[in-house]
Amino acid sequence: xxxxxxxxxxxxxxxxxxxxxxxxxxxxxxxxxxxxxxxxxxxxxxxxxxxxxxxxxxxxxxxxxxxxxxxxxxxxxxxxxxxxxxxxxxxxxxxxxxxxxxxxxxxxxxxxxxxxxxxxxxxxxxxxxxxxxxxxxxxxxxxxxxxxxxxxxxxxxxxxxxxxxxxxxxxxxxxxxx
Length: 178
Hints:
By secondary structure, the protein is an alpha+beta fold. Helices cover about 35% and strands about 35% of the residues.
């Protein structure tokens, strides 16, 4: 009985999250007896409702590398604060030599991003955003820089509580008293 419930829970969890393979790379290690080939996979997992994760997997065969990457992505899932289908404020995510600038956009703008950043942002559930990749364009670093940027976001209500002001003052700016 418990096994059936466990299987259903795993099924629901896998249905909830969407998986996307961003990159599959073949790597070779040269040894005395020749070359040892392996594969590295970059995967993104998200539910399009504010949860997203990025993972890397390496193995001798592609399916095994994909499985490892997806399980690593599920383990690194973070919550992303969304505000009206975009992000609450501008942020720069950094990872090694890569930087990703993420800016909120007006409704109807869509996702203006390169393929790696687009995968992360789409699966996070963001529908309108402007992005710019700065520095290194390595797919792994870009995905992790985007994730770091999304982690750094602060929701408007949390920012209001931290600054001890109202949410409307956060969103529209504080007015000067005359």
